[in-house]
Amino acid sequence: RIRYYRQPRNVGRGANNRTAYRAARGRYVAHLDDDDEWDPRFLRTLVTALERDHSIAVAFCDVYKMSKSGELDIRETNLSARNWGRSDLAPGLHRPFFEEGLVTRSIILGSAAVVRRSVLDLEDFPDEIDYPWDLWITYLALRSGLAAYYVSERLARIRIHPGQSVQAVAALPH
Prior knowledge:
Elements: H1 13-23, E1 28-33, E2 37-38, H2 42-52, E3 56-66, H3 74-83, E4 92-94, H4 98-103, H5 109-112, E5 113-116, H6 133-142, E6 147-159, E7 167-172
Parallel strand pairs: 3-6
Antiparallel strand pairs: 1-5, 1-7, 2-6, 3-5, 4-6
């Protein structure tokens, strides 16, 4: 169920993500950078929301920030939640999610969200988009007209350090 693909040369973050998303075959797609972590309940919680309500394009959660060595940084975690609008974001459905997705950027597609693959028109993913590729994926999900679902629980841990450029995309089975 896991396919590994290595680019013949360094093509950049955007091209890597386009390739991975286009290769995904499951009903849902989730992105996980190689140095980040998911809580064991991450997939079950977010996929359950998507399965329960087909009007949801993306399910996402809050995150912990952790140091290079893997220690949780509660100060940075709380600061991030405030800065990105998650500390005041109500759990549950958000429709439309323009504000959460593109203005405050509360939705963390890198490592903290599961997207319904059917809402992603991946042919409409311009080659010139490198970083922030996640905003383009958010835009594709948003224009579906479906909702976003927020779980305020911190079910992902994102490592903060220089050099965060390697990532993986998981295609979840149907």
